[in-house]
Write a structure and sequence with these properties.
The chain has 341 residues and is of the alpha/beta class. It has 11 helices and 10 strands.
């Protein structure tokens, strides 16, 4: 049995620490909340912390993993954590007091406390099943069990809408959503405890690589008629959403699909709150971009993180420290990303 929760980060993080070394705590200590190990965002945010700890003198970012991004945004807005995984969609919902924030008092006011550092493509929603599951299309999922993401997470809401749009069926009426975290889901899928697995990832994904090495799988993508489905239209209208193709051939001969499949891609970012001093965020941003090559040992897909797309799909004002660095690099900052306080 694989320990999926640590599968991605154990050896890669050890290698990265060997490259960067370990720093001791200092008076400039900041908190970072990340999702569980085994998620692309955990890799990116952890590398930001490790680069800061190595290359920004007398500065330490302490990383705590677990929980969901929707909660981390509230924690940062209230000042109980300093850095977190941001999402244009989640920020939109928070700013408008919608969906998961509709019952959160002062959600829109809290959103005003948040500031962006950088954005990156967090991945594409990969939907797949074992070949022997009997599922040949999303029309066959009636009565099936599906993992769409952790409970209360933004990924689950997006993946559920994607599945409903592709199948024409209703979650927890026509098919059952299983409530697991990312690490638990990988182990449960290995034991055949659910039928359809949805992962938000960049290609190649180590967990899918491992699954396809041992078993035959089939991916499911958007069909031409799906683009008219209200649930799909609704998702593509949200900030931070793109249409992407998944080259399933990278996962080898055990994948039935021979052509790329279409799905929804998502952009995320690293963000903080407005009370972090400008000089600290400037130094961290500069260190990250100027030492990003050190972190590519963690995952080959991290080459998709580039400074020329650091502002793509961003709808949260930049922290002044990050803005200063980007302006020094000659980047044009859109007016809506310039903080007014």
């Amino acid at each position: 049995m694989k320990n999926w929760a640590m599968f991605i980060t154990s050896t890669a993080l050890a290698a990265f620490l060997a490259l960067t070394g370990v720093v001791s705590a200092s008076e400039n200590t900041f908190k970072m909340s990340v999702l569980a190990p085994g998620t692309p965002s955990n890799t990116v945010l952890s590398s930001f912390a490790e680069i800061t700890n190595q290359y920004v003198p007398e500065t330490l970012i302490e990383v705590t993993s677990g929980g969901v991004a929707t909660r981390h945004a509230l924690d940062a807005a209230r000042g109980t954590t300093d850095f977190f995984l941001s999402s244009a969609t989640i920020h939109h919902f928070m700013r408008e007091s919608m969906n998961m924030y509709q019952n959160v008092e002062e959600a829109s006011l809290l959103a005003e406390n948040l500031r962006s550092v950088l954005n990156f493509p967090i991945g594409v929603y990969s939907i797949f099943a074992y070949l022997d599951s009997g599922i040949r299309s999303m029309k066959d999922i009636k009565g099936k069990k599906i993992f769409a993401g952790p409970p209360s997470g933004g990924s689950k809401a997006i993946a559920t809408a994607l599945i409903e749009g592709m199948s024409g069926l209703k979650a927890n009426e026509d098919f059952q959503l299983v409530d697991l975290n990312w690490g638990e889901a990988a182990e449960a899928f290995e034991k055949r405890e659910f039928d359809i697995y949805v992962r938000l990832n960049n290609t190649p994904d180590p967990i899918i690589n491992s699954i396809a090495r041992d078993d035959q799988i089939r991916f499911f993508g958007l069909q031409d008629t799906d683009y008219k489905a209200p649930r799909i239209v609704e998702q593509l209208r949200l900030p931070g959403r793109t249409l992407e193709a998944i080259d399933t051939r990278v996962y080898g001969k055990n994948v039935l699909n021979k052509d790329p499949v279409q799905s929804i891609g998502s952009w995320a970012g690293i963000a903080t709150h407005k009370d972090i001093p400008k000089e600290h965020v400037y130094a961290m941003t500069k260190a990250f971009w100027e030492n990003l090559d050190k972190s590519e040992a963690l995952a080959s897909w991290m080459n998709v993180i580039r400074i020329d797309t650091a502002l793509v799909e961003m709808n949260m004002p930049l922290h002044p420290g990050a803005q200063q660095y980007y302006e020094e690099r000659g980047m044009i900052i859109p007016g809506n990303l310039v903080a007014t306080d």
